[in-house]
Every structure is written in structure tokens, then in C-alpha cells.
Amino acid sequence: QVQLVESGGGLVQPGGSLRLSCAASGFSFRRYAMSWYRQAPGKERELVATIGTSGFITKYADSVKGRFTISRDNAKNTVYLQMNSLKPEETAVYSCQYDNYWGQGTQVTVSS
After folding, report:
1. How confident is the model at residue 65 (pLDDT cuts 50, 70, 90)?
2. Under a CB-based contact definition with an 8 Å cutoff, are residues 52 and 67 in contact?
3. Which of 42, 23, 9, 16 is nearest to 96 (CA)?
4. CB atoms within 10 A of CB 64
């Protein structure tokens, strides 16, 4: 049974940082690319970042380049998203994904 469990969300002030984690189980984690998405209220889901199987290849949405970093630890079956210089418009539910599977998401709220 595939499980993706996100954690690390919360309330942060504009300009602040958060580190999200996604713990994976039920599949061969090291064999799959992983992605982070976000969805703000009333908006479509947006791809934020993707990481290849070994962690050397990463891709980012233009809006987060230079501020967000995706990484993975294949020994821990976990993918991370380090988010710096957060903006209020980045308030959203952040979810990790692989293939057709999604986690339940973690809420990130950027507000003063």
C-alpha cells in the first residue's frame, strides 16, 4: 500500500522559511522521481519542483527558482522541500506526488 505523508507545514511570516518532508512507503522509492505540488484556495494545482531518482537532477517552477530546494534521502525514503523567502501568495496546501499517488498535503500559511 503506497503512502505519502507530508509534514512540516505551518504559519510563517513573509520572508521566512519552512522545510517540508514527505515520508514514502509501499513502493521502491529510490526508483522514482518525486515532485512537490501546491494548491492555493480557488486556484489550480501547480507543480513546484521535481527531483530525479538519484537526486542530481532537479527542476523548479520559475516562481520558486533560487528560493526553494528539493532534495531526497533514499535511505530514509523521504523527499524534502526547503522553502526560503516565502511570500504571502505562496499560501497553499503542499503535497508530494509520484506516479498517480498523492499525499494528503500540509498547509503552509505565509502571513504577518
Report:
1. very high
2. no
3. 23
4. 22
